[in-house]
Amino acid sequence: MCRELQWIFTQLPDDYIVLDTETTGLRDKSGQPDIVTLGLTVVRHRAIAASVEFKIRPEKPIAAQARSIHGIAHEQASAFQPFDAQWDQIAEHLKDQLIIIHNASFDWPILLDQVSRYDLRMPPIQGVFCSQKAAIPWAQAMSIACTQRGPSLDTLTEIFGIENLRVKEGGLHGAEIDSRQTARVVETMRRSASAPF
Length: 197
Known about the structure:
Layout: H1 7-10, E1 16-23, E2 35-44, E3 47-57, H2 64-70, H3 74-77, E4 81-82, H4 83-94, E5 98-101, H5 104-117, E6 127-130, H6 131-134, H7 136-141, H8 153-159, H9 175-194
């Protein structure tokens, strides 16, 4: 079933980091939004080894639409630690790793913007892999609904019959939960592509 179009997933290393963010909203005339939560899932030997979420105090207000997605109010986020106070811990996780992001064209520029804004340094990494874009050829061949960014995390979760971790949170998005969900989808696609015909 077009497994050859999932080939790129078989080329991923056995160890990597999955990153996800929840933000104050979308990019607008003032620039990139702020990160409110940043989730990291550590994959070792193709299995989830650990996951962590950093709660970050934003400088920009949280838009109503963003709050409806992740459920975090600006008043609540004002008690979080600022980005620069937590960067060393975040950077240590990213150092020398391949970073996988579902919709990297959204999350990665936001992270780079905050690193630059606080005059911080990005650690050396192996690269960034967008699992959403990588799934486009397979999704299109399978007539699976997807935007120009690719199939959504929810769509892939449903198609592969993976437990949806958001259900336990009432459907709310969470950076740590979504990073774990992405890791599950990536490894399922890897196994699917490697399965004998």
